């Protein structure tokens, strides 16, 4: 299958640092001008209401907070970017308003993948890195994952029907602007690129 074209013109990026290595979670979306702090509101999928882009970081960081410990991790910032041709231009940003709330230490080079599908039947995966995720595993039963994992899975794919207007399920898209439709599994495993960066291979 050919790579998907990049048609999305906007993205919001959330940055966090684990053991001195910064990670970023990028999300494509559509926006409309507004009077809120970022200058833009989300353009949500059917069934959800617009929210200010500057408010999205609190929901994202709150959902990943249980997987990170404040002694080795900081939640840093959010940034809104707009694409013109092949160039991404910074539009707005700010500091994170939520911090880590977990008790488990960071696991170097570990990755947490939330696997799902988008309209059109193609795979859509979301990732966070180096949290306290546990041992390598794949779980496709919603009842078989922890409450913290359920909340994060719902944030992206909403199998538990708990998504709110600030949840990514309400507004994020693939790079060619397809919306998320259903969750498949949580996969925890090492990340080979991070293993190289950390000098573990």
Question: Any overview of this molecule?
Answer:
This protein has 201 residues and is mainly β. It has one domain. 14% of the residues lie in helices and 37% in strands. It contains 4 helices and 10 strands; from the N terminus they run ββββαβββββααβα. The protein has helices spanning 56-64, 147-156, 168-171, 192-197; strands at residues 10-18, 21-29, 31-33, 40-42, 73-84, 87-95, 110-118, 123-129, 137-139, 180-190. Strands 2-1-5-6 form a 4-stranded antiparallel β-sheet, with helices on one face. The model has no long low-confidence stretch (mean pLDDT 97).
Summary tags:
single chain, mainly beta, 4-stranded antiparallel beta sheet
Summary of the model, kept short:
The protein is 14% helix and 37% strand. It has helices at residues 56-64, 147-156, 168-171, 192-197; strands at 10-18, 21-29, 31-33, 40-42, 73-84, 87-95, 110-118, 123-129, 137-139, 180-190. By secondary structure, it is mostly beta strands.
Element order, helices and strands?
EEEEHEEEEEHHEH
The biggest sheet, with number of strands, parallel, antiparallel or mixed sense and barrel status, is: 4 strands, antiparallel
Structural class comes to: mainly beta
Average pLDDT, all residues:
97
Strands in their spatial order, largest beta sheet: 2-1-5-6
Helix residue percentage: 10-25%
How far is the N terminus from the C terminus?
31 Å
Low-confidence stretches: none
What is the helix tally?
4
Strand content: 35-45%
Overall number of strands: 10
| Overall 3D form | globular
What is Rg?
16 Å
Overall structural domain count: 1
């Amino acid at each position: 299958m050919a790579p998907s074209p990049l048609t999305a013109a906007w993205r919001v990026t959330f940055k966090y640092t684990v053991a001195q290595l910064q990670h970023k979670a990028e999300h494509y979306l559509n926006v409309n001008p507004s009077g809120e702090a970022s200058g833009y509101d989300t353009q949500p999928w059917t069934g959800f209401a617009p929210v200010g882009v500057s408010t999205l970081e609190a929901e994202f960081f709150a959902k990943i907070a249980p997987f990170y410990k404040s002694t080795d991790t900081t939640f840093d910032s959010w940034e809104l970017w707009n694409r013109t041709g092949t160039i991404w231009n910074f539009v707005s940003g700010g500091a994170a308003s939520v911090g880590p709330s977990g008790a488990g230490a960071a696991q170097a080079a570990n990755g947490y993948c939330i696997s799902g599908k988008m309209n059109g039947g193609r795979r859509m995966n979301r990732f966070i890195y180096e949290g306290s995720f546990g041992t390598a595993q794949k779980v496709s039963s919603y009842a078989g994952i922890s409450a913290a994992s359920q909340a994060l899975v719902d944030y992206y794919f909403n199998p538990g029907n708990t998504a709110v207007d600030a949840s990514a399920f309400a507004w994020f898209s693939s790079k060619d602007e397809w919306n998320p439709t259903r969750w498949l599994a949580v996969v925890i495993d090492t990340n080979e690129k991070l293993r190289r960066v950390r000098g573990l291979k």
